[in-house]
Amino acid sequence: MEALTALGSTLFSSLDLIGVYVILALGLNLINGMAGMFSIGHAGFWAVGAYTAAAITVHDPLSTPWPVTLALSIVAAIAVTALAGLMLAMPCSRLAGDYLAIATLGFSIIVVSLLYNLDFVGAATGLSTPSYVSKGFIWFMVGVSLVFYYRLQYSNLGRTILALREDEIAAQSIGINRVRLKTLVFVLGAGMAGLAGALFANSATYINPAGFEFDQSIKILTMVVLGGLGSLTGVVLAAVLLTLLPEVLRLVNLADYQMLVFSVLLIVMVLMRPQGILGRYEIWDLPWIRRFWRPNGPLQVVAQQAARARI
Amino acid sequence: MGINFGGLRAVDEVNLHVDSGEIVGLIGPNGAGKTTCFNLITGVYQPTRGSIDLDGARIGGMSTPAINHRGIARTFQNIRLFRQLSVLDNVRVALHRQASYGLLGSLLRLPAYHRAEADLRQRAEYLLAVFGLAERRWDLAGGLPYGEQRKLEVVRALATEPKLLLLDEPAAGMNPQETATLTELIQRLRQEFKVTILLIEHDMSLVMKVCDRIYVLDYGKEIARGTPAEIQSNQQVIKAYLGEA
């Protein structure tokens, strides 16, 4: 019983971090899953968002009341990060596969080294940030992000993104502009990371450059791959599990073995279920959920397949 | 038009002309440069010489999507469907330029979104019904039988409302009965959808039946042109296909 309450309180105190990671993973899933590009520098965008928001709430340049400052910091974080996404995408949208991965990796390293050296955001010591947002607000934004992702995927634009992932040559032959679409996807994915950054900076009491290093990019990437590339609900599930795992391990005094557990988990996944927990399916493709509800969209196809494969 | 790959003249001074409403065949032995011609016309390759015009406007050098917007659509020799998408979505995505709502419309699910989506669905369903694929709408495109995949490629190309449709070996891998259905279908395409067709095909019964005129390529050069009857009796063509006696 005691263990259960401890688990409950751990879960509760991790809720804001879980929310942030869910949004991050959704943004990366947009780029890697829906569009089929391979970006491994997502923490770079996260850092841009977090530091943009923190710079505004800490320095408060316009001396506005705090709710206005908060709103301003979120909007600015999304805008600046989306702009960073645009600037990265413009030279990179012709790149594919490994080359794109290296470019995004380079971007995230540049961002972090910049942050280590910029004095007005605290350089290596970081920034103490005010905690303006509640868990409720973070999860409200998670909801907004989920709706955004879902509605994007089942729209005209979403279909063209999926088509581009399936076959670039065929997609171009039906008039889809590859470069423009890939750039747009990068901007949207980066924008979501910007939102996650703003929420993180406004809920954590302290941010520093070390929190946005390459291992964070890998963590977000792991969530996407573990959940199932392109699966909305799978990625959410993986983001929740992977954020909770270290906390739970700490609870049972196994924090030192965190990396071990992580690695074993990944190896087991790759061996047993390389397509991720849900693969390209969604939670609502499970037969017992499908009985009650299913969306009107391409998922009906997937549902059919799922029924055949009996997942 | 012409193109060099390094020192190789893959297509050399080929002069194709297709009139509106015509069905024109492009034939020749393997490696003659037929598909390369298609890739030149659709902007997959940029021509190194010559010009490509559509309705008097120069399209040579334009990008593939831009050329599609101008009214040229194609199918592929090695089928290139969006395999993980449904049959319906393969067609709906090709209608993407006809949807009249933007990103905001889809995110907020404005009335315009619902109206446009209903309209897209209806158009896609119509095309699928014409080609007898309506029953398959929720199947994954990659799971269709071969003949239906070829048909779906035609539907997808047609959905972009082209003036000129390029068909790259539409009958490849089809049995005689399927080919007969396809022959009818190509003739219906011209009548019902008012498209002009340029097609590459090895099945001579189909070519001779549907084409108004035929061009014959060999080693990247045009070796003959004319009506099906003229081509059938052309000595050079027979030589190119069968070798010298």
Q: Which terms would index this structure?
A:
heterodimer, A: 311 residues, mainly alpha, two-stranded antiparallel ribbon, 72% helix, 1% strand, B: 245 residues, alpha/beta, Rossmann fold, six-stranded mixed beta sheet
Please give a structural write-up.
The complex is a heterodimer of chains A (311) and B (245). Chain A is an all-alpha fold and 311 residues long. Chain A has helices at 2-34, 42-59, 66-92, 97-117, 135-153, 156-166, 168-173, 178-203, 214-227, 232-251, 258-272, 287-290, 299-309, and strands at 127-128, 206-207. Chain A is globular and about 50 Å long. Chain A has a two-stranded antiparallel ribbon. Chain A has a domain at 15-213. Helices cover 72% and strands 1% of the residues of chain A. In chain A, helix 2 (42-59) packs across helix 8 (178-203). The two termini of chain A are 34 Å apart. With 245 residues, chain B is α/β, with parallel strands linked by helices. Chain B has a domain at 3-71 and 162-242: 3-Layer(aba) Sandwich (Rossmann fold). Chain B is built from ten helices and ten strands. In chain B, the strands form three sheets. Chain B has a six-stranded mixed beta sheet with strand order 6-7-8-3-9-10, with helices on both faces. A two-stranded antiparallel sheet of chain B has the order 1-2. In chain B, helix 7 (176-193) links the parallel strand 7 and strand 8. In chain B, helix 3 (87-94) packs parallel to helix 6 (146-159) and helix 5 packs across helix 6. The model of chain B has no long low-confidence stretch (mean pLDDT 85). The interface between A and B is large, with 31 and 40 residues.
